[in-house]
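Before relying on records like the one below, remember that each one covers exactly one chain. Contacts with other chains, cofactors or solvent are not represented anywhere in the record.
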Amino acid sequence: MKGERCIFIGYVTSSKTYKLYNLKTKKVIINQDVTFDEKGMKMVILNNYEENERSLEWKETSNEAP
């Protein structure tokens, strides 16, 4: 399986597609052909304690069950 690693950022409400942030190109893309790797990369949303500002932080996790 080959593809681009992206971060899921939401849904497009007018169609059945996903909004994704492409880590390689640093651009937001819209696509419906997506495979989610739930054991790989995890995303955490951190609040900056200022209104309307958020930063995204992601980290690699092991595939081993706790």
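The chain has no helices and five strands.
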